[in-house]
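Support reply, case 0932

Customer input (verbatim):
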Amino acid sequence: MGAHASSRSHRRRRMMSEINVVPYIDVMLVLLIIFMVTAPMIVTGTIDLPRVGQASQAPVAAVEVMIRQDGSITVRRNTEGEQEKAIQRDELAATVKSMTGTVETPVIISAERAVRYEHVIGAMDVLQRAGMTRVGLNVRKD
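Our regenerated output:
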């Protein structure tokens, strides 16, 4: 009997080549539940945008860039009796610089309600690349 038992102990055990994934799935499900419970409790950041009623009045000496629905651009000083001058978009920076004299003079962009957003942003981009530091949007108070 002793010889028989010793022959069994000398037998090599086979290595397991499988990975038991059940514990990993359990951990993953617990983490999923934790994230699902805590996600609604996370406070999101809020941005306090200025309201139109809180905006200051338009500056007295400014250049007004008007963008029409068809994409045409006109420029004028915002003083009484000043005439509008129709220009192309590539002439915008040079025309505004010649009208202002300095880069500190405010430039106000007025656009019709139906104007595509990209036209307004394009005009702002052209003016800011030209060095104009005070570029703003004209809004209507309701």
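We compared this against your earlier run and they match. Two observations from our side: The radius of gyration is 35 Å. The helical segments are 2-9, 22-38, 92-100, 117-129. Please reopen the case if you see a mismatch on your end.
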